[in-house]
UniProtKB/TrEMBL annotation:
PROSITE patterns: HTH_LYSR. The lineage of its organism: Bacteria, Pseudomonadati, Pseudomonadota, Gammaproteobacteria, Oceanospirillales. Residues 6-63 form the HTH lysR-type domain. Coiled coil: none annotated. This is LysR family transcriptional regulator. It comes from Chromohalobacter beijerinckii. SUPFAM superfamilies: Periplasmic binding protein-like II, Winged helix' DNA-binding domain.
């Protein structure tokens, strides 16, 4: 089998099937139909004269030939991505596309306004924003810039810390009698908050779990219980009251990150400079010091909401 004779598009098919273990998964990854993947795999196997995958009830398993070809595909993909990053890193234009990844709460509570201001300043830069809490891979060009709360940014990326994010306990102003809690589902990937709730003895009182911070916010606002939320987001909500001081153990750093190959790209540098300045100006909001907190000196799980409307968070 001469791997060099296999077109790159066919290599991508093999890699996608090997990674996902199914034709349907490969189709989703590549953005094509299941039938197209099936047809192209069959044509490739016929042309090479070898079977690349064994079809099992549990999925598609690479044969020795398929494993060899998928390894080659991964290597070629890494080489292409590296070349693309290096070429983009030499791009001095303040135009083109810039892919940004961030979380749903940061986009809603902070970044939409900031990105709008950036685009007014640089109208020829097209922003593509991926809202996701999943692990990001800037080496594979999932995005060019990541804006993330993290206390341990990946060593493979470079960037700068642009602030600190505070969190506190909030409750609905209209459902203050509840002793229930809203908490993170494990799929949210927030083990620090899960451990905090366990240490506070709140697991038995958690009646509602959800896999996004915006879902937790909605649950608290609906009166399903009190919950820990980012101050920059919850302090804007007139129907929420803050019932604790910001929690030091849940405070985290806010980082702007990019791949080293992209650090000299003009549009990446422009976004870094703009957001560094604008987010520094919003530190009071990020730290929760713009709104007065109402909190009594009891453990968080025993605190009661304030007795009057003026003592809670203000927008």
């Amino acid at each position: 089998m001469n791997e060099k004779s296999v077109p790159w598009e066919d290599l991508k098919i093999v890699q996608a099937i090997a990674d996902s273990g199914s034709l349907a998964g490969a189709a989703r990854t590549l953005g094509i139909s299941h039938a197209t993947v099936f047809r192209r795999l069959g044509a490739l196997e016929s042309r090479l004269g070898v079977r690349l995958f064994e079809r099992h009830r549990t999925g598609y398993v690479p044969t020795l030939a398929g494993d060899d070809l998928s390894t080659t595909a991964a290597r070629v993909a890494a080489d292409i991505e590296a070349v693309e990053r290096r070429l983009m890193g030499r791009d001095a234009r303040l135009s083109g596309t810039l892919r940004v990844t961030t979380t749903d709460t940061l986009l809603m509570g902070v970044l939409s306004d900031e990105l709008a201001g950036f685009q007014r300043m640089y109208p020829h830069i097209v922003l593509e924003v991926e809202v996701s809490n999943r692990t990001y891979d800037l080496s594979r060009r999932d995005a060019d810039v990541a804006i993330r709360p993290t206390s341990a940014p990946p060593e493979t990326l470079i960037g700068r810390q642009v602030g600190q994010i505070a969190q506190a306990v909030y409750i609905s102003r209209y459902h203050r009698e509840t002793s229930a809690w809203v908490g993170p589902d494990p799929h949210l990937g927030y083990p620090v908050l899960e451990r905090w709730m366990t240490r506070q003895g709140l697991d038995a009182q958690c009646r509602y779990r959800v896999d996004s911070m915006l879902g937790m916010l909605s649950g608290v606002r609906s009166g399903m219980g009190r919950g820990v939320l980012p101050c920059y987001l919850a302090d804007m909500m007139d129907d929420l009251a803050r019932v604790s001081e910001p929690l030091p153990e849940l405070q985290t750093e806010l980082w702007l990150l990019t791949h080293p190959d992209l650090r000299h790209t003009a549009r990446v540098k422009a976004l870094f400079t703009y957001l560094s300045d604008s987010l520094q100006a919003r530190q009071a909001s990020l730290l929760g010091t713009m709104a007065a907190a109402s909190c009594v000196s009891l453990p968080c799980h025993e605190r009661q909401p304030p007795e009057h409307d003026g003592g809670g968070a203000e927008s």
